[in-house]
Amino acid sequence: MPTALLNGVHIHYESYGQGFPLVFAYGLGGNTTEWYGQVPEFSKKYRFIIWDPRGHGQSDSPPNLDQYGSGNSAYDLLALLDHLGIEKAYVGGLSMGGGISTRFALLFPHRTAALVVIDSASASGLPTPPAALRMRHRIVELALSEGMDAVADYSIRHNPNISRTANSGPEGERAIREMYAVLDPVGYAYSTLATVHPEFDSNILSAIRAPTLVLSGDEDPAREACKLIHEKIAGSQLKIIPNAGHLSNLDQPEAFNRAVLGFLAEVDAQRTG
Is the alpha carbon torsion for 240, 245, 246, 250 positive or negative? Predict the structure, then answer.
């Protein structure tokens, strides 16, 4: 699969299908494979492009903390669109990927045809709650001292963002462990540190004018943050996926696909009408 040298970092991406570009990034610890349940449906109508933010998947992991964060990754997304010759796209992502895409929509509104924010507290601009902050710092310690197997063990027990999926059965736990196993410990640790402090204020979300879908699992710890994002972005739609946690596309893929494709069909009609 291709990579592009963008802003001094090799970024991995995959492109499926033809049509108007739809570009998604996954959350903290994830990679492009977490979107494979969406590829068959989304690529029927769209050019579905999935990519690994720096520190994740098959993309590079820069050595310094200041090389991470939603701002740096938003500029990577801009460079990726330029690399692919894409003037305007539907952009979105889950959790950290939602924060990156929201930052992109704020920085580059003229390149954003629509925004899809999925299960994302980092897109809200809210501070990380103290308990979650302590958990994140412990994860960073484990990543740098013991490696990703230790992070997986700890996260399955203590991280509510992934514990629901991991505890859904042997297949869910295996998927989570495989997700962590391919991560570079430094890239994951610094990506984690970059997400614990918001890079923008919630009030700036009101500047977003692109059609926006905010989607959350009904059991997602980020659900209230998603509601705030919906309230801040005028005209946005809010969709709650039943019986889903923080990884709603993995927990309920059919309902997730229907929600996203239904929203995009409405945007298509406005864009081409």
Answer: negative
Reported as a single tens digit per residue, the pLDDT across 205-256 is: 999 999 999 999 999 999 999 999 999 999 999 999 999 999 999 999 999 9
Tens of pLDDT, residues 87-100:
999 999 999 999 99
Cα dihedral 56→152→121→75 (10° resolution): -10
**What one-letter code names the amino acid at 256?**
F
Q: Which superfamily is assigned to 3-127+197-272 in CATH?
A: Alpha/Beta hydrolase fold, catalytic domain (3.40.50.1820)
User: What is the C-alpha separation between 143 and 84, in angstroms, rounded?
Assistant: 34
3-class DSSP state for residue 146? coil
Strands 20-25 and 89-94: parallel
Residues whose CB falls within 8 Å of the CB of residue 5, separated by 6 or more in sequence, listed in order: 11
Kindly report the pTM of this predicted structure. 0.96
In terms of DSSP bridges, do strands 112-118 and 212-217 run parallel, antiparallel, or are they unpaired?
Answer: parallel
In this structure, is the dihedral angle defined by the CA atoms of residues 242, 244, 248 and 253, taken in order, positive or negative?
Answer: negative
Count Cβ atoms below 10 Å from residue 40 Cβ, excluding itself.
12
